[in-house]
Each structure stands twice: as structure tokens, then as C-alpha cells.
Amino acid sequence: MQNNAIVVLYYNKIRLTIDCVRSILAAGYPAAQIHCFDNGSRPEVFAELKQTFPQCAHHRCEENYGYSGGFNRALDWVFGLGFSAALFCTNDTKVFPGAVEACSQKARETGAGMVAPCIIYLSSEGNPQETIDSIGGWFDAGTCSLNHYQDRNLPDILDPAKDYIPGTALWIHKDFFKEMGGADETFHMYWEDVDLSFRAHRKNLPLARCYEAKIAHGVGQTVRKKPLYTTFYFHRNRIRFCRRYLTGETLQQALQLLEKELLDMGQRWQENDDRKRLDYLDQLLKELMSHE
């Protein structure tokens, strides 16, 4: 049996984080298995979580490293403690009983180093729904867009040509994490989960999905109050991802599509005199025209 940690990555949002940890305890997992990683929250948030759950392990960064940096530092921490695998969750999730065991079993059956659990929606009242948010996702090169699978009878192994595991919650083995070198921190946030999956595909490392492992997710709760911040990183990283993984005519078509979308957004921002987003637009267009 693999020695699994459960990692909760959080940045402020103390009430969400408390609810997440409580769900893990309610699912029957011992406190010694739960590791809370503070990605640069206010000191009082870290102190409150430690006081609320003194039986769990706690670790803190003094600054926010984005999703990718928090992901890497949290997993470096727990794997350094001797765990061989981890269920990694953002703090806007709730864990169901048996999720860790189901992912571990799926990894043994498929040889996968990373497994996508079945993510279901949380209602606005915080109650789990039966509707699937994602059971893995795919990148559409024709539209440069990300999409979530919501089907109920997909094969265990993800399609290496287009599929990825969303970073909301995932199971990951230490050896896979080390071989991949973690997430690419140049992404900061958004698309780093897609990049991690695509780098694994390039190494012919299988990725799997697990319907039996259920995680509820309050979609968008961790970042919805910072639209300027999220707008910039989403579109910048979308450009970087396309440049990294598309080639030839497919890449040229993608860049033309992205340029049109950016200019259309810029027109709307101009009409609304949205100066901050217009500043972002200049940076995004420079990124689009770069030849790195």
C-alpha cells in the first residue's frame, strides 16, 4: 500500500480552507495524513488554520508563488517527509471517502504517475451535486481552448494527443513528480496543469482517470475576485502553451486566432475605457509576437 499524503494548497480564503480540511477529516482520513500548505497568505490566516486544526501538519511560504510554485513547494515538502504519493487539492474542494484509495488503485492498474479524480460541482450553498465538472480535460488546437470531459464512460487512460489533468485536484506519485520536475513555474497560474500533462505525454508516461475517486469543487472561488490578474495570466499562458506545443500551419492558425481574440477584447476595453486591461493588452500582444 502506498504511503499517501493529502495536500491542501491555500492562499487566504480561511473559511474555504477550513471547510476543505473538515471534509477530509469527515471522509475518515487521519489528521497525520493531512498537510496544509500556505502559499503566502496573511500571517493571521495561517495562525487561524493551525489553531483550528492543530493535529494536522502545516507549512507556510512568506510570499505567494502562484499555483505552479505552490504546487511544487507543497509536494516537495510532503515527499521530503517520506510520502510516496499525494492527493493534491486546492482549498475550494471537498474530499469524499475513499478518494485516495481509489486513485492509488487506479495508478497500480494502469501504471499512471498522475490520476484525475472525478470532480463534481458544489452548489452555491456548498452542497455536492451529481453533475460532473471534470473527469480530465482536453485541449482543442483548432480553437486554442480547454474543455472538461463530463462523460461517464471514458477509458481509464487519457488520450496522449490532447488530454490533460486539471489542477483542481489530482493524485500524483513522487517518482512521476521528480521525473517531470514538477510544474513549470514560468506559467505562475493557468495552463501549468495542461503543460505538465503534455510534457508527460511527450515522455510516454500514462495518465489516468478515476470515476470512483470523488472530489467536489466550488468552481472559481479561489480567483474570482481578481479578474485583472487572472485575465492576464490566462491569455499570456495560452499563447505560451500554443507556441510550445503547436507547429507549422496549426501554430500559425492558432496565432492568428489569438491575435483576433485579443484585438476584439481590446476594442471592448477601449470602449469601456478600461485602462488597466488595455495595459495588459500591450503585454499580451508583445507575447504573441515574440519568437522564443
H and E string: EHEHEHEEHEEEEEEHHEHHH
Fraction of residues in helix: 40-55%
* Average pLDDT: 92
Which class of secondary structure composition applies to the elements? alpha/beta
What report would you give on this structure?
The chain has 292 residues and is of the alpha/beta class. α7 (227-245) runs antiparallel to α8. The chain folds into two domains: 4-217, Alpha-Beta Complex (Spore Coat Polysaccharide Biosynthesis Protein SpsA, Chain A); 227-289, no CATH class. The strands form two sheets. Strands 1, 2, 3, 4, 5, 6, 7, 11 and 12 form a nine-stranded mixed beta sheet that branches. A three-stranded antiparallel beta sheet has the order 9-8-10. The protein is 43% helix and 24% strand. It has helices spanning 14-26, 43-52, 66-80, 99-110, 174-180, 192-202, 227-245, 248-271, 275-289; strands at 4-10, 34-39, 57-61, 85-90, 93-95, 114-122, 128-134, 137-140, 145-148, 163-164, 169-173, 207-217. The protein is built from nine helices and twelve strands.
